[in-house]
Sequence to fold (198 residues):
Amino acid sequence: MEFAPVEYQAAHKALNDARRSMGKADYEDARVSIEYALQHARRAASLTEEGKARLKQQEAKKAILAEQARQAERIKAQNKKAETKQEKKQSAEKPAAKPAPEPEPKPKPRIELVNEYSVGEGETLWTISAQPQVYGEGLLWPLLYQANRDQIKDPRQIFPGQILGIRRDMTNEELEEARQRARESDIFPVSGATPQGQ
Fold:
């Protein structure tokens, strides 16, 4: 429920509609409502699986980082112990020398965001939107489609060499609206379009 509240609520509402239709003996309407509920339930299940997978990845990363931190502390303690022994030995022979300064940590590489993107072979709006330098999230593909309607007639058909403009001025509401449109669209079904992006 926490990963796909909108889909679960839609499925629940459709099931209630089906119950009401069954009570009125309107079996056709009940059948349609049940199919609608099933569609939303499948999407909700897919989104939940994705959410759980993301949580597992995050937990695994946290565990790796924690282990790396523990190893770094152990190495630091060992180095400190070795330095102390060395200092004691040197102080017996001559005045202690200043310890060498620790090297500064290297900065993490920054991902440069782009304002234009050249379509490559086999790419889709979903895979482009999932690129870190674009939006880093496949569900935001409707933003690419909207910004490039002058050259994209069908979101399923983009061609190598096309130069797509990338919007950067979206509000949080616009981002959420784009995600919702992507979830409700059958152009790139959420359950089958996630290998390259989320």
Summary: Residues 192-198 have pLDDT under 50 and may be disordered. Residues 1-102 form one domain. DSSP finds five helices and two strands in the chain.
